[in-house]
Amino acid sequence: MEFFDEAYSGKVFIMSRHSYDDADIVIYGMPMDYTVSFRPGSRFGPNRIREASIGLEEYSPYMDKHLEEINYFDNGDMLLPFGNAARSLEMIEKYVDKLLEDGKFPIGLGGEHLVTWPVIKAMHKKYPDMALIHIDAHADLREEYEGETLSHSTPVRKICDLIGPENVYSFGIRSGMREEFAYAKTSGMTMEKFEVAEPLKKHLPKLAGRHVYVTIDIDVLDPAFAPGTGTAEAGGITSKELLEAIMLIAQSDLKIIGADLVEVAPAYDPSEQTAIAASKFIREILLGWTNKK
């Protein structure tokens, strides 16, 4: 598999297997943060999540499963052309096309949230009936930001245009323009403000049996739990609630087809609590979602 960075000194997510060809699940990094509007640095997130994973137990008491029970390979970070957002997005789409062609379950590590857009473009080719669960502090429903259509504030609007707003479910939203919230009300998409776990309980039955991709922006957490992110937003949920949400999805009748976790920016969190939390969420996603296709 091409496009991965061998220069990350062997850092891999804990218990990563040694062979891409034999793996059912592939973890990959998308180190892009060129379009952010406040603080850059999320391109360093994937490797810090990997490094933090060394402190995890391989067993999850939430899922009652051990990482040795699943077969996954960490393929490192993609080699993206720094500063060239358009070309980077093309490369990500091509990369995920290949993962799906090879029958892999993709788990992406960002990077800014715009990286989810090319992933969904690739997923939609294989699963035209798909839906999206979007867990985030921000609506990400702008059509452009200061004249730029390729922006971290636009991916969910682009996804609505591609798969239909009625197939987009956003949770935890607490920030955005008035126009974004108006679009959510009139377009047919589902937007639940402020909370995640409780509204998920209401909406997951509606998605039973469907192919669903899940994207998580770490800034859905309150900055008290995740200060290491580019656009921190006060008033968020706790780490415990996000773990509950991950468990609810694991216990549901959804057919999960892939996932990503984005916007970890290590420079703003010397305690590393953000990367530590993100690595635990990835462990639970690995154990709870990857057999739900």
UniProtKB/TrEMBL annotation:
Highest rank taxon of the organism: Bacteria
Enzyme Commission number(s) of this protein: 3.5.3.11
Entry-linked SUPFAM superfamilies: Arginase/deacetylase (SSF52768)
Keyword Metal-binding: yes
CDD domains, alphabetized: Agmatinase-like_2
GO molecular function: agmatinase activity
InterPro entries according to UniProt: Agmatinase-rel, Ureohydrolase, Ureohydrolase_dom_sf, Ureohydrolase_Mn_BS
One matching Pfam family: Arginase
Class of the enzyme per the UniProt entry, highest EC level: hydrolase
Keyword Metal-binding: yes
Coiled-coil zones: none
Keywords: Hydrolase, Metal-binding
Similarity comment text for this entry: Belongs to the arginase family. Agmatinase subfamily.
Classification via NCBIfam families: agmatinase
Descriptive protein name: Agmatinase
Organism: Scopulibacillus cellulosilyticus
Gene: speB
